[in-house]
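pasting input
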Amino acid sequence: MNMQTTIAGIPFKNPVMTASGTFGSGMEYGEFVDLNQLGAVVTKGVANVPWPGNPTPRVAEVYGGMLNAIGLQNPGIDVFLERDIPFLKQYDTKIIVNVCGKTVEDYVDVVEKLGEEPAVAMLEINVSCPNVKEGAIAFGQKADALYHITQELKKHAKQPIIMKLSPNVTDITEMAKAAEAAGADALSLINTITGMKIDIHRRKFAIANKTGGMSGPAIKPIAVRMVYQAAHAVKIPIIGMGGIANAEDAIEFILAGASAVSVGAMNFVNPYTTIEVIKGIEAYMERYHVENLTDLIGAVE
Amino acid sequence: MNMQTTIAGIPFKNPVMTASGTFGSGMEYGEFVDLNQLGAVVTKGVANVPWPGNPTPRVAEVYGGMLNAIGLQNPGIDVFLERDIPFLKQYDTKIIVNVCGKTVEDYVDVVEKLGEEPAVAMLEINVSCPNVKEGAIAFGQKADALYHITQELKKHAKQPIIMKLSPNVTDITEMAKAAEAAGADALSLINTITGMKIDIHRRKFAIANKTGGMSGPAIKPIAVRMVYQAAHAVKIPIIGMGGIANAEDAIEFILAGASAVSVGAMNFVNPYTTIEVIKGIEAYMERYHVENLTDLIGAVE
Amino acid sequence: MKQKQTAVVASQKEIAPQIFDMWINTELAAEARPGQFVCVYPKDRSTLLPRPISICEVNGDKTALRLVYRIAGQGTAEFAGYRAGDSIAILGTLGNGFLEAVGIDSLTGSIVRDDVEITADKMFSGKQVFLMGGGIGIPPMLQLAKKLNQFMEKDRIQIIVGYRDAQTFLREDLERYGKVFIATEDGSVGTKGNVMNAIAENGLSADKIFACGPMPMLRAIKAYAQEKEIPAYISLEEHMACGVGACLGCVVKTREIDHHSHVHNARICTDGPVFEAKEVEIG
Amino acid sequence: MKQKQTAVVASQKEIAPQIFDMWINTELAAEARPGQFVCVYPKDRSTLLPRPISICEVNGDKTALRLVYRIAGQGTAEFAGYRAGDSIAILGTLGNGFLEAVGIDSLTGSIVRDDVEITADKMFSGKQVFLMGGGIGIPPMLQLAKKLNQFMEKDRIQIIVGYRDAQTFLREDLERYGKVFIATEDGSVGTKGNVMNAIAENGLSADKIFACGPMPMLRAIKAYAQEKEIPAYISLEEHMACGVGACLGCVVKTREIDHHSHVHNARICTDGPVFEAKEVEIG
Ligand SMILES: Cc1cc2nc3c(=O)[nH]c(=O)nc-3n(C[C@H](O)[C@H](O)[C@H](O)COP(=O)(O)OP(=O)(O)OC[C@H]3O[C@@H](n4cnc5c(N)ncnc54)[C@H](O)[C@@H]3O)c2cc1C
Ligand SMILES: Cc1cc2nc3c(=O)[nH]c(=O)nc-3n(C[C@H](O)[C@H](O)[C@H](O)COP(=O)(O)OP(=O)(O)OC[C@H]3O[C@@H](n4cnc5c(N)ncnc54)[C@H](O)[C@@H]3O)c2cc1C
Ligand SMILES: Cc1cc2nc3c(=O)[nH]c(=O)nc-3n(C[C@H](O)[C@H](O)[C@H](O)COP(=O)(O)O)c2cc1C
Ligand SMILES: Cc1cc2nc3c(=O)[nH]c(=O)nc-3n(C[C@H](O)[C@H](O)[C@H](O)COP(=O)(O)O)c2cc1C
Ligand code: FES
Ligand code: FES
């Protein structure tokens, strides 16, 4: 039985990754999970300079999920390269760094610095964070802006780049195609869906930022649909995510067309989720006599 | 205490309605609910001719909600006028008829026939059904198409028209503004969000139509966000819906800017939901000494 | 009158691997007809839709319903954890019922449909019937058999049931109300094969068929009934959202234009679940 | 070592209206420090996020934790329904703890931070402390008081607690480990007013403050500590998603640039929940 999956020529020992922003750089969950077992660790978004993020409350619970408006708080690429990369290098797992920015130049800056670090396998470009006022989200919601930034980053990136798509669009296939046409090596989707919660007793927003990105099991059907649509629109591989809580969910994404999957919010609920997903996919492959994980990709009829 | 709300000049005894397609024309739920107590009954979508709808399975459960692809099965406007309207006329509640079609002409046809029926208080135009292949969904996803159909229907409609918006768009405010500019009297949102579920054991879609419209508590944060955004973009009143299960949920929509609310999928789970919502809003108003329901509309800070 | 209510579990036991037998106390029992079902609602709020479960039996004083079900997923797994005294959320009673599909009121035995000419006593007395159940389609046959004993002779009630293996749940119950013929897939009990094989092997015949079970079985019965020119009343399954006819989720294609929908679709939850086989297109 | 586990409820009772007192058997008790908390996870799958609850007490042989909590919403309402023998999902133990915030390892009494020069015995012996709790901020003060008894004289442990009314839950427990001063909003017991009024009325003074309670109380304590030039260690609350420092959901603005975030934000779940008041900006 072969759990290996390949994205942009890079082999991953299994298709299970951590979703950016839900796993830090692995340190916190290293107490629960043997990082060596993961297909990849995808880090929290990192910018060219430290970002303070949004005021609190930053998280709120919703039915079957959560809202967050962390606002991409991060220590900046320099600290990240000094502290987080050396930590992750100790493990036998691939490192994918999630990159955020406000302008194309910001992104280029980070991408270039990461180019110096061969331990980083791939870059995931977050053009879809709904919690940052400036720029970033527009890259993820307009096909031409997405095309432009993808093309620019390809000029500077040493590693293959994954464009992370926003679900807050009319037509995900249009975005997927724009990224592909501009040279993206892979896509990841979905980022969070913009949501809102109001505390009716205080008549105030539950999140200081008013809106927050929704994630968790509640969004899974929307995510599966978008992965399926995108997979039918482009040839580049897709990393699927949105509400994955167990192996069944992960397999659903793979059958819909994902070459790999990420576990996000459910890490918070059950820190052992990633490992359980890996074991569960193995069990499924055994039960249905599936030789290669790749045979499952897009195999829904 | 005054529960009345007014939409396009029409007074409703309270702000609680049934969401189209989840309550038939009231007959089935008349066994559970005193229809006289409802602010309005919004009927299942009706077309100019009978529609057979989609193959089964048409419904599937998802985490905190459901998918449906009924495909707007309906007996056509003639049967509807002969059977459903006389039934509803027996009750002291407003009648809002949901209208569907494949072409502008189809819609006009239905709207004109309904114009002959003074018992119908308003028309809700479903331009956002994601489960019909032809036309309809495009009206709800392109601002210019929405503008065009709204304008055409306004020429023919005797009753005020509510444009029912699709959440499957990049920017709900753009759609809301287009409908307003074209003369819509009110908006209702959200319709269902396109989703997908895959049965991993059979490797088949859970819904014959592959995709289905997602509704239920899981989508509420997205719906509340869109109602809030739309309410800040237009002056016409908004009927809010999406996952309302109880009075707290309904009040959340009202605080976000809805002048009325509809209960959809939760009727299926608890047939008494509408009545419980009405009673719960009353209790809330009493607890917080709110004289007029209208004081709550958009009152989030 | 349909009602959603919180009832109380009277007892529950596992009668075969993954098959549970639950009695619940509810006044809905007074109205229950064989072939009807109830919708059961999981308590966990992530699973909102109702789980339709057939009425397997009604107790003597009509104060309790018996449900026999297989664990199929999250909802039924939750139900299987209920113990005596626990609450259970149900909506019922739903659907038409087997005799109602024939045109007879099963509570009184009298006629309910224009095209039916004789009461239950006259319709069934001296006739032969098949009650055919496959797998988890067997439970509703119990209450039907019990009911038919009011209108006809026990040994003319031929109950033909198909199981996977020797786990022949409900067998003793069924034997109280009719002549039971068993088919098992692995041949461990009765005829090896399915219910059709059991008919052939035992040389059985009937004037009417009532059936519930998997789609291939129902298709075979439809074909058999057509060949023998006898009516077959089959209970269908479909995924449901409302259970009361409002959502149009649970339709089946019909031969004639359906009077309610005005298209070729009937609602399984309200127009069915029991249909005359020749009226529905089940492929 | 943090762990998510299924523990067992040993007992539960309501000790004041809507206030519940639950003991759970768990080996996490061996590691528990006063001021730390555990995350409790509702079983209903519609409510996924953890509910942080402070450790109120650890039993003598360190095999059980006591949690005292108020019903605030759906999660705590679910917990309140648990009975002895039920399972409960917890993650723990989390956060730094009161003495750890001072620079002392509460399990050993020894020094853990570079800038601290003396062990717990030396730090507390002969000194006066305030343990201040408001409302549902009172529970963590119990284990802290109990612990401080190992390092100092009982009557120098001045426990000042504020309640709404005469429902003075945990009072007897606290009295075993220190001198208790009570304030009630309605004046029914002790000083009428809040904990600051109780300090004034009783003419109390201290060398160090430990506090947990609503934000206005913590702000008043911060101001008081600044005026008196004594250190105050306060336990903060924020909505949490992970509880382990990964999501950056639960931050508080800090005076200095935080060493982990490299911005002026510390994580309440891992860097706190206890902070020296002057280090955090609480408005
Ligand atoms: C009229 C009728 C009578 C039935 N009577 C019985 C009975 O007596 N005993 C019994 O064991 N089963 C019966 N079933 C099937 C039973 O409803 C399903 O096994 C059950 O709904 C599965 O729920 P779950 O949560 O365990 O499975 P899941 O697969 O987790 O359910 C997910 C969703 O799919 C629906 N679903 C799954 N399978 C079916 C199915 N076969 N039919 C309809 N909906 C389904 C569920 O209701 C739920 O909404 C009946 C079905 C119908 C339509
Ligand atoms: C470090 C810490 C220690 C705490 N210790 C105690 C204690 O010992 N006893 C006690 O009664 N309460 C304590 N609380 C508060 C307790 O966490 C909340 O009352 C509880 O989470 C409410 O959950 P709910 O589902 O009942 O309410 P809901 O309002 O339904 O909760 C919805 C969401 O908001 C979160 N939330 C709501 N209120 C708070 C809050 N005050 N702080 C953080 N998250 C919140 C919930 O965790 C959940 O994610 C503590 C909070 C923190 C941060
Ligand atoms: C607290 C939190 C922080 C996140 N931060 C980032 C981020 O920095 N960059 C990014 O691309 N996505 C971020 N995401 C989005 C997730 O990576 C993921 O796309 C989304 O949550 C959907 O997956 P899930 O439902 O499994 O959580 C964040 C999500 C959460 C919940
Ligand atoms: C089974 C079903 C049928 C529906 N049919 C229609 C319809 O005919 N016309 C329409 O405008 N919306 C239709 N809707 C959408 C609902 O009116 C509503 O907009 C949506 O379900 C969100 O609300 P909810 O989450 O409360 O269900 C349907 C929804 C469901 C679940
Ligand atoms: S389940 Fe809704 S019509 Fe049958
Ligand atoms: S709750 Fe996630 S960092 Fe504190």
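fyi Chain A has a mean pLDDT of 95.
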